[in-house]
Amino acid sequence: MTVMDATAPTVLHLAGDIDIFTTAALRRRILAAVDAGAGPLVLDMSAVNFCGAGGLGVLLHAQRRATAKGVTMTLTGVSPRLARLLEITGLGDRLPSIV
């Protein structure tokens, strides 16, 4: 019998561009992780080249779903460009980042 640690974080490594062509698949991937897990969810953004408005929408929707399910979702590996985008849009507080 395998016992899973419900408090162990689930880490999703995201890469490439988060744009109109990739948001649907990304939404499915993140929401599946939110729905499957009870522990924290960490989105590793270190290999993300670009994040457009649709990508921000996906992240915000996932954050809302995670909060509703009692799952903590954080971003890591956030580039200075993405950090600035989160700051400008006011989403920095809603999408917390860890170093």
From TrEMBL:
PANTHER family: ANTI-SIGMA FACTOR ANTAGONIST TM_1081-RELATED (PTHR33495:SF2), ANTI-SIGMA FACTOR ANTAGONIST TM_1081-RELATED-RELATED (PTHR33495). PROSITE patterns: STAS. Residues 1-99 form the STAS domain. Belongs to the anti-sigma-factor antagonist family. This is Anti-sigma factor antagonist. It comes from Herbidospora solisilvae. InterPro entries: Anti-sigma_ant, MlaB-like_STAS, STAS_dom, STAS_dom_sf. Pfam families: STAS_2. GO terms for molecular function: anti-sigma factor antagonist activity. It comes from the Bacteria.
